[in-house]
Amino acid sequence: ASRGSKRALLVTLGIRDPADEVVMRKPSRETKELYTDITDEEKLEAIRQVRAVAHRLRSPFPIGAWTTFQDGEWWVGAREGTGRRRWSEVVREGLQVPHALHPPPAVSWRGPDDDEHVAEALDLLGDGLVEGAEMRIRALREHVSQEVVLRAASLVHQQYTKVCMPTPALDGGLSGEQLMAYPGDQEVYRLLVAVSRLAPGALRPEQLPNFSVPQPMLLLEVQRWLRASAADDRADGREGRSTARNVERWKDLKVDQSVLMVHQRDAVQDMLARDAAGAPGHFVVMDTGYGKTLTALSYLRRFLDASAVDVRCVLWVTPTELVRPTLEQLRRRWGAPACELPEDGRPLEAHVNVVKHDRLRKVGRELAAAAPRTLVVFDEADTMYAATQRTSAAHRVAALCPKLVCQTATPLRNTKNEQLAEWLQRTERFPVDGGNWLVAANGMVSKQIDLGIGVEYSEVEVAMQDEVRQAHLTGKRDWLQVAQVTQDATDGAMVEEAARRAADGVLLVGNDRAHVDRL
């Protein structure tokens, strides 16, 4: 859809209800506002154009080749005539897929050291499921730790063509763009091989340590069974017992819901609605200063009041420079039981444990052990997109925790949207990749308030002084010195510009206290 000849607009169908279309501008580095800079007339016209034609469907699931809009609803299946179903009906009722019945193993798996069982599974080529597959797969939990089961479930999560376990580089670090391999991954591989023996239609071993996925819908069921077996531990037997424990354990976490502004209250309700729909996590987008911290706290309190998961602690991950301000805000302003993550890396029970991003990789093993009973908040999640050990450690914790909240003011930092897609995978039930990440992005809990404030960007050129020129020409540049010299050389021009606009009111942002005094 287009507005005259100036720009194109994108339309994505809704996640929960396909008729809940979202209209946005095409993401790019230059695009500052994706949603708010579009008039109601433009949105209506864009949706009208999209609904007026049939669209080809590309999906690993058997829902048909076309989607069309008719009688106020989206339909899937054939392009026209019979053989179509209401898309909302498919979402509500799900899909039924026939599968072959595979012969079961003669002897049950006895654990990661059962080489005979592994050899049989690797030699056997089958399809479908064995009889009683769910019960058998859930029983595998008896032979491995909860962390191994959750790690296995996280590796098959979102996969519908192949499952590739991470492999270390020759120096033991990251291999290419992969996340890190961790100690214990050999047990995870053997567990997945045991699963493939019971569900060959879901997983098929290929070149070690990878698997192909013959039927992605079966793999979705296998993932659900794996997570259910781990959830049996987290719930401690009875739902009411865990909820009561949460209420008692977290009695000091008090959030006055009446102080929430309308957009914060709406965000909390959106997250609770996503929980009810089975979303594993949330990606919250709010501009700086709009109250992400209070919103997340309020949601955590509501989650704890109703959850069947026995939650022992909260982990709040934030950039280094925000650790102290976050602790101050949590403690003094909102009265939350908050502390900095202890030196040993073991989160303090019944507390919000604040930790800087860069420390994750150093205490990854301790956090992974605590993660199954920990709620995790990643503040400024956009700083953890790059393929680094820190990001790998963050994904490891995110994959093991019962509920995840990512929050940021800038979800689109650059044009490398695959890195954003990796985090969106953690917050959605459906497979997210580079081809459909925009649909998942439109499922973000985004509360952008249009204050009607215009933004004007202006550049001021400053003549280069000799000391600046010399700093830039030095063979082995000290970039901190270059930045300092450049800043010193431009301070005067910035103050002159501020003085010129003094009647309007000016906010000058300094680098540190000394810089503030200089300005």
Automatic annotation (TrEMBL):
Residues 273-429 form the Helicase ATP-binding domain. One of its GO terms (molecular function) is nucleic acid binding. Gene3D superfamilies: P-loop containing nucleotide triphosphate hydrolases (3.40.50.300). SMART domains: DEXDc. SUPFAM superfamilies: P-loop containing nucleoside triphosphate hydrolases (SSF52540). Pfam families: DEAD. This is Helicase ATP-binding domain-containing protein.
